[in-house]
Write the structure tokens for this entry.
Amino acid sequence: MISVLFFGDIVGAKGRSRLKRDLPLLLEKYHFDFVLANAENAAHGKGITPKIIDELLECGIDAFSLGNHSYSKNEVMWLDPSKPVAFPKNLIGQFQNHHTVVLEKNSHTIALMSVMGNVFMENTDASWADELQVMTQVNADIKICDFHAETTSEKYILLHTFHHKLQAIIGTHTHVQTSDAQIYEGCAYITDVGMCGPFPSILGRDVDEVIRRFIKREKTHYTVSEEEAMLSFVVITFDDEYHPNNIKPYSILPNENLLEVINDCDIMNLLRR
Ligand SMILES: [Fe+2]
Ligand SMILES: [Fe+2]
């Protein structure tokens, strides 16, 4: 059996510090072959920096996907291109050719690829469908796509057009976990995995500020909330022929103990060290 842990969008310092605190404890107790995360909001709510990527690698994440905020911090330009970071293939920007990360661990290879939706998203220069036709030809035992998109319909279109070329499709960007995790004709799928960021908040942002901006039309910043972080993720397992046989979503609130919440679940018992 092969296991993959995938964390939703990491938001700001609170999201990072909860991961740094909890992920090593999780990895001590359970075996995962690959740990993946969307990091597009890791640096103060928007973008990434080389230092933050190094910190998150240090705490146990193997590879990252990104989204529309990939280039929000200037420091991203100094990222070592050899780092395991997948930039959306159809997002205009410098790292456009670093869109698939292939990792080898425990004699298994995994490809993490990143594309963005075309509906309600800016700065895309191509259709994800055209890009994925080429990207899915990558050589790997397990092919996972982070589909960073706004609408549920577009995410389902990707599922129904690429389920036979990918073993997992994980939706990101909306920061709210959906309850439709499923194995559809050999492909593990969830419309959105959720976020690792402040709770309560509005998608990780300060509640009061966002309300004032939307309802009173005030010009406010999208300040990252100071609340403690929740963790949202999925655990996916694959059989020895790399077919997914389970996908289990989790949302752990700030006051909940991660290890206690996952303790009595069947899938986690299989992964216990
Ligand atoms: Fe995000
Ligand atoms: Fe996003």
Summary: The mean pLDDT is 96. The domain at 2-271 is CATH 3.60.21.10 (Purple Acid Phosphatase; chain A, domain 2). The chain has one domain: 2-271. The two ends are 13 Å apart (CA to CA).
